[in-house]
Design brief:
single chain, 480 residues, mainly alpha
Length: 480
C-alpha cells in the first residue's frame, strides 16, 4: 500500500512538472514573438538592480516567463529526487534524469539571450525546452501506465447514448436498425427529405473546419496581405460545400457498414431515405458548385487544394485507409489539416510557412482527438469492421498514443506561435486550454472508463476551437 501511494504521489508531482514545462515552452514562445525580451536586458532581474522595475505588460510577461522557469526548475528537481526514492523503473528514472541534466543548460541559454547573446541561442533555447517537456511527458506516460494496465478489461465499459461530433458522427439507435415509418403528408415528407440530405453533409464537422480555414486566412494577413470580405465569404462558402460533398461520399461508401454500428444505424442511406444514386449525384453537385465558387471568387490554387481535400477524405481515407489499416486516423489527418493551407492560399495565392505550421497542429491533434472517441466506441467500430487503433492494437496502446500525440500537438502549437509571431492572446489561450486537455488525458490513465475517454474527446474539441478563435482574434480583430 505504501509503495502504491508513493507511486501515486510521484505521478502527481510528475504531472505538475509536465504542465509546468509546457507552460514554460508556451510562455517562452510568447516572449520571443513580442517586445517582452527587450524589456529585460539583464539576468536574473530585468534591471541592473534587484527591483522589478516598471510594471508594463511586456515586463510582466517576461517576469511571468522567469517565474515559470523557477517553478518548473523546482518541480524538475523534485521529480528527480522522487524518482530516486520511489521504485519507478529505469526508463522513467533515465527520462527524468535527462530533464534534470538539460534544465541547467536551458537556464544558462536563457541568461545568454537576456544579456544579448548570439541569435542562434534563441532556437536552441526553444528546442531544449521542448526536449525537456518531451522527456517528462514520456516519463509520465510510463508511470501512469503501470497503474492502469492490470485494470484495463474490467473498468472499460460502454458509454450509452452520447452523440459526439467526430469523424463519422451520427446518432445512436438500436443495434439492428428498423425501417423508419414513411410520413404521409407532402410537407412532412419534404422536410424529412431535406433533413436527410442535410445529414449527408455532416454539418457537425463544418464549424470547426471553417474555423480552421478562417484562422488560415487570419494568419495570411500577418504577411501583409489584405483579406477582402468577399474572399473570406467565398472561401467559407466553398469550404462548406466541399465538406458537404466529402461527407456525402463517405455516407455512400460506408452505408453497408453503418447498418452494423449503433452510432451510424440511423443514417439516411441505411433507411433508404435517400437513394444511393441520388446521394452520389448530390455529392458531385456540391463539388461542382464548390469549385465554381472558388474559381470565380477566390483563386485556382485554393480550388485545386479543396478538390484534393475532397479526394483525400472521400477516397484515400474513407475507401482506402479506414477499412484497411489501424493507422487510418493518423494518415487521414491531412484531410482536416488542408483547410488551414486553403485559407492562407485564398488570401495570398501561395503556400506559406505559418499555414503549414497550423496544418501540422491539426494533423497532430487528430489522433489525440479521435482516439478517445474510438476507445469509447471500439466495440461499435469492431462490429462495423473498421480496424481503428484501439480495436487493432488495444486500448492501452491507444491511450499511450493519445498522450504522445497530445504532447506533439502542444509543442507544434507553441511552434506555430513562434513561426507566425502570435502574441499574448494566443499564448494564454494555448496554455489554459492545453493544460485542461493534458489533465483530461492524464485522467484517462487514472480512471480508464469510456465516459472519461469521451469527455477527453470533447475537451480536445474545445482546445482546438479555442486556439483557432485566439488566432482569429489576434489577426483579424486586434491586429486590424
Amino acid at each position: 500500500m505504501t509503495t502504491e501511494l508513493s507511486r501515486r504521489r510521484f505521478a502527481d508531482v510528475l504531472t505538475a512538472t509536465v504542465i509546468a514545462a509546457y507552460v514554460l515552452v508556451a510562455l517562452g514562445t510568447a516572449v520571443s514573438t513580442t517586445d517582452s525580451a527587450a524589456a529585460c536586458s539583464a539576468w536574473p532581474t530585468c534591471a541592473t538592480d534587484p527591483i522589478v522595475g516598471s510594471g508594463t505588460g511586456d515586463t510582466l510577461l517576461y517576469w511571468g516567463h522567469r517565474v515559470a522557469a523557477l517553478v518548473a526548475g523546482c518541480l524538475v528537481l523534485a521529480s528527480g529526487l522522487a524518482a530516486r526514492r520511489v521504485a519507478v523503473g529505469r526508463r522513467v528514472t533515465a527520462l527524468v534524469g535527462c530533464a534534470l541534466v538539460l534544465f541547467p543548460v536551458q537556464v544558462l541559454l536563457g541568461a545568454t539571450i537576456a544579456v544579448g547573446g548570439p541569435s542562434v541561442a534563441g532556437p536552441i533555447h526553444l528546442a531544449l525546452a521542448m526536449a525537456i517537456f518531451g522527456c517528462l511527458l514520456v516519463a509520465l506516460v510510463f508511470t501512469l501506465e503501470e497503474g492502469t494496465l492490470e485494470a484495463e478489461s474490467d473498468r472499460l465499459t460502454p458509454t450509452p447514448n452520447p452523440s459526439p461530433d467526430g469523424d463519422d458522427a451520427g446518432g445512436v439507435s438500436a443495434t439492428a436498425p428498423q425501417s423508419a415509418p414513411r410520413p404521409t403528408g407532402r410537407l412532412v415528407r419534404l422536410r424529412r427529405t431535406i433533413g436527410a440530405y442535410l445529414t449527408l453533409t455532416k454539418p457537425r464537422l463544418m464549424w470547426l473546419l471553417c474555423l480552421v480555414a478562417l484562422a488560415g486566412m487570419g494568419l495570411a494577413t500577418l504577411s501583409g496581405a489584405a483579406l477582402e470580405p468577399a474572399t473570406a465569404l467565398a472561401t467559407l462558402a466553398g469550404g462548406v460545400l466541399a465538406i458537404g460533398a466529402s461527407g456525402t461520399f463517405n455516407h455512400v461508401y460506408e452505408r453497408d457498414r453503418d447498418q452494423r454500428m449503433d452510432r451510424t444505424a440511423d443514417r439516411p442511406l441505411v433507411h433508404d431515405l435517400v437513394p444511393a444514386r441520388n446521394a452520389v449525384a448530390f455529392g458531385v453537385g456540391l463539388t461542382v458548385v464548390a469549385m465554381t465558387v472558388l474559381l470565380t471568387w477566390v483563386n485556382a490554387l485554393a480550388a485545386v487544394l479543396t478538390l484534393a481535400a475532397i479526394g483525400y477524405y472521400a477516397v484515400l481515407y474513407t475507401a482506402v485507409l479506414k477499412p484497411n489499416t489501424a493507422w487510418n486516423t493518423v494518415l487521414g489527418g491531412g484531410a482536416g489539416a488542408l483547410p488551414a493551407v486553403i485559407g492562407w492560399v485564398a488570401v495570398t495565392g501561395r503556400v506559406g510557412l505559418p499555414a503549414v505550421a497550423l496544418a501540422a497542429v491539426i494533423f497532430l491533434w487528430t489522433p489525440a482527438h479521435f482516439y478517445s472517441l474510438a476507445i469509447a466506441y471500439r466495440d461499435d467500430y469492431a462490429r462495423g469492421g473498421f480496424p481503428m487503433y484501439p480495436v487493432a492494437e488495444g486500448v492501452a496502446a491507444a491511450r499511450r498514443h493519445i498522450a504522445f500525440y497530445l504532447g506533439a500537438t502542444l509543442l507544434a502549437a507553441s511552434g506555430l506561435g513562434w513561426v507566425a509571431g502570435l502574441g499574448w492572446v494566443y499564448g494564454v489561450t494555448s496554455i489554459a486550454l492545453g493544460t485542461v486537455f493534458l489533465r483530461s488525458v492524464v485522467r484517462q490513465f487514472r480512471r480508464p472508463t469510456d465516459e472519461v475517454a469521451l469527455r477527453s474527446f470533447y475537451v480536445s474539441n474545445y482546445y482546438l476551437g479555442a486556439i483557432l478563435l485566439a488566432i482569429v482574434l489576434e489577426t483579424l480583430v486586434i491586429g486590424s
